[in-house]
Design goal:
CATH topology of the largest domain in chain A: Rossmann fold
Number of helices of chain B: 21
Order of helices and strands of chain A: EHEHEEEHEHEHEEEEHEHHEE
Largest sheet of chain B: 6 strands, mixed
CATH class of the largest domain in chain A: Alpha Beta
Strand content of chain A: 15-25%
Number of strands of chain A: 14
Strand content of chain B: 15-25%
Structural class of chain B: alpha+beta
Distance between the termini of chain A: 48 Å
CATH superfamily of the largest domain in chain A: Response regulator
Number of domains of chain B: 5
Number of strands of chain B: 30
CATH topology of the largest domain in chain B: Rossmann fold
Shape of chain B: extended
CATH class of the largest domain in chain B: Alpha Beta
CATH architecture of the largest domain in chain B: 3-Layer(aba) Sandwich
Largest interface: A-B, 22 and 29 residues
Structural class of chain A: alpha/beta
Largest sheet of chain A: 5 strands, parallel
Oligomer: heterodimer
């Protein structure tokens, strides 16, 4: 393990699943920190320097949704929720509370690794060849190179997933981007039908960037996708 | 929240510094509040807080001593004194409708439309129809007499009449005080519409649930002030109750207690004679005398001389009580008789020294030596006597005698109060009391069993000897004021016949009916069907007034029955919700419990197939071991589910044989993986074999031991003891741990499927349900020892199968506990 290895915080109470995930991640050069209870989760995220959190929703005596919200309130770290609940409601709820991705049990190790890689790619993405200067949409300014977003001059904190989605939209102002396109480009191949992801994340972006009653920054094309309002 | 007024808007109604006193008793001492457009303000307070006085002062029908009432910023003006202000319409609690006039006539009463000096009947009907349409009140027949309408319909007519003149302020005095639950809902809907149209509403009510459903703000009136003016969204009903009563309602139990006490007080109010025993006991306390007796004087007539009859008494032996039961009101009646005859106190230091008292002593109180008697003198003369008795000689001190006279005065006041109550006022008091009882019952938290109290109060009020409530479902509550509580059989059959007759009668007939000379019956039409109240008199026909009272009470009783049905439905719905929640939680837990091992199995398998990592031998072995153990875990879970569904459906079969409990327990102990706790098994050597299914019993004890180990502290061992009771033919096994124990609140419910303690470990929570199912199937019992510290599970098994000796027949399981 080197100092610059990627740290994964695993919050899971079942010893066999801990062993399984840890063995696989260690074998691929990740550093793994395990919490079996989820206690003091925000301090744990901060102190471990985690790049990514794997969170089991069903821990004894703790509501996993609460943990998800607490982590998101304190950090922009990537969160993959792991849960036995397959209902759409649970998925949307976890995404709303700040999760980047939602994996249902049982899962294969390939799938877990693929999802982790996609999420880490978003958080580490080398700045794509941008226009070289900030893009301006009304009061919102997006500097793709510096990964900096401001609204009326004030910096806005976006999670890696939120930023990746905003970048795709901002690079094609005025153009319709379908759900499938956005899902493939932001989350990765295989996500094309998970339209709850785009719905929840566009809602999160709007909440952070648009003014209530003000002009729309991101326009919904019903049943098709989204388009960014034309740049000024 | 609903009021749309800005901070500077002029209120529709402003009442400021309202003062009102009746005689020297101040009722309102500075009442101030505002009412805005489209707002409902509820004025609440306990009985006697002054709510009605506020309404009358605001309406202008009662002159106020001080303060102002402004409508739209202008002083309220009345066309004539006592008539009431324009722009403020009041719907009084007692509606003030004319029963024999039609709906239309009532709407226009005193304000009839005229055309060429003639009543414009057609015009009035048209306008009434338009009014009802505007208010969304279904108008069936506007020419029906109001007396033929239900309570809710009458209320709607009264409100419509008030709204006909488009008042700025509508005042409602107990708008749904005497309505059933369904009629209440209709009136509430109308009020919500009236508010939406912009009219400001002042509602006086004691029904907190209604207040919280309708009002935007709640003003609490106590001691003549507005104590609080709060938004109904921001306070809890309990807080409002506390404000109304001035008593901190910190617990449901205390509230209940207070409500029951008030019921008892109301019942005592029906019988003012109850104050005499109080006087006697107070006097015994004050004088330090422990044998006291009050006699009441019954004036004689030409046929019978006046006599004294014993009323309240204290500390008297039975023999003496009998001897003093009835005395002639003259010298033959001993000291009480003499005191009553002369109006003077009689003091006897030692009765044996005076032959005057010999006949009195010979009649009963032989061992008595000294006594005294003081007349109770009221405004009309002697009413009775108070006497004290002792078996030693002596007499009361002068200051003691002074006190006796004082108490005699109190007694006179109490007796006169009773005598002065004519039948009419008595009936009113009974009605008031009855209404009070029913109001208390209909309060936010009904006192359980209160309907019985109300019936008993009614029975006393009617002076009937038995009363019965015949419910639509055939169930009967039969009560008697006699000492037995259950009326005699012939009375019950008379009442049953009357109830059947009333039930068969036309549904439009709501009146009290008389059956023979001894039974009255009145129908109560409730949503569940027709109930009947019957009353029976042992001695002769009931008075006309009893019939009136029964008719008056019927409406209140109907309300109480509806209320009771509503409560029952609520409780049922709550229990259903609880059971559905438990099932949902169980499914969610089962999903998690099954998917977790599946995830491990699938994950390890896919790990071993990864092309990019070469796992060393130790890792490979570990992964394979985990796959095996997780598969076994899944197998156990699925086994539990199958067992439980077999128990639940009654499909499980046992394969019993003679088995040795020591072997069963040893096998179970080996199955429990105990990281911390030692398990100590203590078995007497001479324990007989039991007729049981070895594997199933092992399963029971594995479950119990797993639980015990999970909850034990690890400081002391988990112990298993068995003992044989040859007399009962049973073996009792106790499994004890030193953990926190089963929460008392959970109790026996731990044996129900889906129930789990808050600190339950992993698993489906079926273990104890399965254990109970298996033990039940063996004809045994399983329970928690509630007195024990830690948790102690007690399993009692019969040594031999119930009934015949052991053959290899199957035992059939009873149907599961859960259903």
């Amino acid at each position: 393990m080197t100092d610059d290895s990627t740290v994964v915080l695993l919050i899971e109470d079942d010893p066999n699943i801990v062993d399984l995930v840890r063995a696989n991640l260690l074998a691929r050069g990740f550093a793994v920190v395990v919490s079996r209870t989820g206690a003091d989760v925000t301090a744990l995220v901060r102190d471990s320097g985690a790049h990514l959190v794997l969170l089991d929703l069903m821990l004894p005596g703790v509501d996993g949704f609460d943990l998800c919200r607490d982590i998101r309130a304190a950090s922009l770290v990537g969160i993959i929720v792991v849960s036995a609940r397959r209902g759409e409601q649970d998925k949307v709820r976890a995404l709303n509370l700040g999760a980047d991705d939602y994996l249902t049990k049982p899962f294969g190790i390939d799938e877990l690794l693929a999802r982790m890689t996609a999420l880490l790619r978003r958080s580490r993405s080398a700045p794509a060849a941008g226009p070289g200067r900030p893009l301006v949409f009304g009061t919102v300014s997006i500097d793709l190179d510096a990964q900096l977003v401001t609204k009326a001059g004030e910096p806005v904190h976006l999670t890696p997933t939120e930023f990746a989605l905003l970048r795709e939209l901002a690079l094609a102002p005025g153009h319709l981007l379908t759900h499938a396109t956005l899902l493939r480009k932001v989350w990765g191949p295989g996500y094309e039908t998970e339209t709850e992801y785009t719905r929840v994340y566009v809602r999160r972006l709007r909440a952070k960037l648009e003014d209530e009653g003000g002009p729309a920054l991101i326009v919904t094309e019903p049943r098709a996708g989204y388009r960014m309002a034309a740049a000024e | 929240m609903m009021s749309s007024h800005g901070p500077g808007a002029v209120p529709v109604l402003r009442v400021a510094d309202l003062h009102k006193a009746f005689g020297r008793r101040p009722v309102l001492r500075g009442v101030t509040f505002e009412l805005h457009r489209g707002e409902i303000l509820a004025l609440v307070g306990e009985n006697g807080a002054g709510k009605s006085t506020v309404v009358q002062c605001v309406a202008g029908t009662l002159p106020r001593d001080r303060g102002t009432v402004e409508v739209h910023g202008r002083p309220g003006s009345a066309p004539a004194p006592g008539v009431g202000y324009r722009d403020i319409e009041v719907v009084w609690q007692h509606l003030a409708l004319c029963d024999n006039l039609s709906v239309v006539a009532n709407l226009f009463l005193g304000d009839e439309l005229l055309e060429h000096g003639m009543l414009d009947d057609a015009g009035m009907v048209e306008e009434a129809k338009a009014l009802f349409a505007r208010l969304h009140i279904p108008a069936s027949d506007l020419r029906r007499p109001v007396g033929a309408l239900s309570g809710g319909q009458r209320q709607l007519v009264a409100i419509a009449r008030a709204l006909r003149r488009d008042p700025s302020v509508l005042v409602l005095d107990e708008p749904t005080g005497s309505l059933g639950a369904q009629e209440t809902a209709v009136v509430e809907r109308l009020l919500a519409e009236v508010r939406a149209s912009g009219t400001a509403i002042l509602m006086v009510s004691h029904q907190l649930d209604q207040v919280f459903g309708l009002a935007d703000r709640i003003a609490v009136l106590r001691d003549g002030h507005i104590l609080a003016d709060v938004s109904s969204l921001e306070v809890h009903p309990d807080d409002v109750l506390a404000l109304m009563s001035g008593i901190e309602t910190d617990s449901a139990a205390r509230r209940q207690l207070r409500r029951l006490r008030s019921l008892v007080e109301q019942l005592a109010d029906v019988e003012p004679a109850a104050s005499l025993p109080l006087i006697v006991s107070a006097m015994a306390e004050a004088l330090g005398i422990d044998r006291l007796c009050i006699h009441l004087l019954h004036p004689g007539d030409t046929d019978a001389p006046p006599r004294l009859t014993r009323s309240a008494a204290l500390g008297m032996p039975d023999g003496l009580l009998r001897a003093l039961g009835s005395l002639p009101a003259d010298g033959r009646g001993g000291p009480p008789g003499l005191a009553a005859a002369t109006g003077q106190a009689v003091l006897v230091d030692d009765a044996r020294l005076d032959p005057l008292w010999a006949p009195f002593l010979a009649a009963g109180p032989t061992q008595l030596r000294s006594f005294w008697s003081v007349p109770i003198v009221g405004s009309t003369g002697v009413l009775g006597t108070i006497s004290g008795y002792a078996d030693t000689s002596g007499r009361p001190q002068a200051d003691q005698l002074e006190l006796v006279w004082l108490y005699a005065g109190h007694a006179a006041a109490a007796i006169e109060r009773e005598h002065l109550l004519t039948e009419a006022t008595r009936r009113n008091r009974v009605l008031e009391t009855l209404r009070g009882v029913l109001d208390t019952l209909a309060g936010p938290q009904p006192a359980h069993g209160g309907l019985t109290l109300a019936l008993l109060a009614l029975c006393r009020g009617l002076r009937a000897d038995a009363i019965a409530l015949h419910r639509p479902d055939g169930e009967r509550s039969e009560l008697s004021t006699g000492p037995l509580g259950v009326p005699p059989e012939h009375a019950r059959s008379r009442q049953r016949e009357a109830a059947e007759a009333v039930r068969r009668a036309a549904s439009g007939d709501h009146g009290v009916r008389r059956f023979g000379g001894d039974v009255l019956a009145v129908p109560l039409d409730t949503p569940a069907g027709r109930a009947v109240v019957t009353a029976w008199w042992a001695g002769g026909p009931p008075s006309d007034e009893a019939s009136d009272l029964l008719g008056d009470a019927a409406r209140s009783l109907r309300l109480a029955i509806e209320r009771e049905a509503l409560e029952g439905a609520r409780a049922e719905a709550a229990s259903l919700r609880r059971s559905q929640r438990l099932q949902r939680e169980f499914l969610s837990r089962m999903n998690h419990e099954l998917r977790t091992p599946l995830t491990a199995i699938q994950g390890y398998a896919s790990t071993l197939r990864q092309p990019d990592v070469d796992w060393d031998d130790a890792s490979q072995r570990r992964f394979l071991d985990s796959i095996a153990s997780e598969s076994a875990r899944m197998g156990r879970l699925i086994g539990d589910l199958l067992d439980f569904s077999a128990i639940d459906s009654g499909a499980m079969r046992l394969a019993p044989d003679w088995c040795d409990l020591a072997l069963v327990l040893e096998a179970a102990r080996r199955c429990v993986r105990s990281p911390r706790s030692l398990i100590a098994v203590h078995m007497p050597a001479d324990l007989p074999s039991v007729w049981a299914d070895h594997d199933r019993l092992e399963q029971v004890f594995v479950n119990l031991l797993d639980n015990a180990v999970l909850h034990a502290t690890g400081l002391t061992e988990v112990s298993v003891d068995a003992c044989h009771d040859p007399a009962a033919g049973t073996i009792t096994v106790r499994v004890r741990d030193d953990g926190p124990g089963i929460p008392a609140a959970l109790g026996d419910r731990v044996f129900l499927p889906h129930e789990r303690g808050a600190d339950a470990g992993p698993g489906l929570g079926l273990g104890l349900a399965i254990a109970r199912g298996i033990v039940d199937a063996h004809g045994g019992t399983i329970r928690i020892d509630p007195a024990a510290s830690g948790a102690v599970m007690v399993v009692v098994l019969p040594v031999e199968p119930a009934g015949a000796g052991g053959t290899d027949r199957d035992l059939e399981l009873p149907v599961g506990e859960a259903r």
